[in-house]
């Protein structure tokens, strides 16, 4: 079937009142959270109208589309809902074999969708092309083609792509874009020289380097061959039919024994073997002493007794700190520190540094007195 690819434009207008409340709209396919892939919606601010637009394809012909439109009043929190039914029908006017896509730099998509603006553009194209039939095929925002959001200065626009179709070949003016001279200028980011640009310049600024001319009759269709899917892949269309309840249930007891009981039994056997080896096969102190010679046992016991005696004696002795760790004189007063040990102290316990009393020719450091 050949269907007429038109623009279902539905302006979601706000209720006329003096308050001018901010109202936002939400659109979705009935029973689904989003819109169809061919349908787009745009609303700039809560104080502006919403525009619902798109271009359905041949596979949507004869399938009514119900769009749920929900309006939210941001001031009073009121909600209203309306169902929009879009009937897509076929037409005999298409296809139009010669299609040209223009990029208009000074327009936004909602401005271009206005009937008077779109009519002026089609009229300018008709004067240049001179076809018998001319229709708009598709309108797309530049943001949907990978364009960037313009800066909010100098009233810049995001741009819009408009595709039109006609029943006659392209005019010589449109063919000027394909000339080598203009292609060179486009590669150098310069505007090409187009003789019919003045007929658009008054209202529409067209980027002639981005124009696309397509002849459907010369387009070679490409068929992609897909491999034959196996038995485990579901078909692309149709519903999934689950298996019936008459299938036999599977017994998983044997799988349980293999995956859980057998490893547990092996681990338990290894645990008993390890416990017997470590607990029941130990020699013990008595068996070790029976296999040791008597002279070795006596020697070992004497060493233990001597060690215990030395440790007990070291706990009871009281030895002063050696003089080598004490200061020789008082750093503030200069007074010599008296020896810590008496004269009759045992010489074997003397520290490495001699006492201050045994030093000859002691020098007393004079104390500094403050002047005045």
TrEMBL record:
Main location per the UniProt record: membrane
Q: Where in the cell is it found?
A: Cell membrane, Sarcolemma; Cell projection, Dendrite; Cytoplasm, Cytoskeleton; Golgi apparatus
Q: Name one Pfam family in it.
A: Sarcoglycan_2
**SUPFAM superfamilies, sorted:** Cadherin-like
Checking SMART domains in the record gives: CADG
List membrane-spanning regions: 256-278
Please state every residue range assigned to the domain named Dystroglycan-type cadherin-like.
7-95
A single Gene Ontology MF term assigned here is: calcium ion binding
One GO cellular-component annotation of the UniProt record comes to: sarcolemma
| Membrane topology of this protein | Single-pass membrane protein
**Keywords assigned by UniProt?**
Cell membrane, Cell projection, Cytoplasm, Cytoskeleton, Glycoprotein, Golgi apparatus, Membrane, Transmembrane, Transmembrane helix, Ubl conjugation
> Its function?
Component of the sarcoglycan complex, a subcomplex of the dystrophin-glycoprotein complex which forms a link between the F-actin cytoskeleton and the extracellular matrix.
Q: Which family, according to UniProt?
A: Belongs to the sarcoglycan alpha/epsilon family.
PANTHER family registered for this protein in UniProt: ALPHA-/EPSILON-SARCOGLYCAN FAMILY MEMBER, EPSILON-SARCOGLYCAN
Q: Which protein is depicted?
A: Epsilon-sarcoglycan
Q: Which organism is it from?
A: Seriola lalandi dorsalis
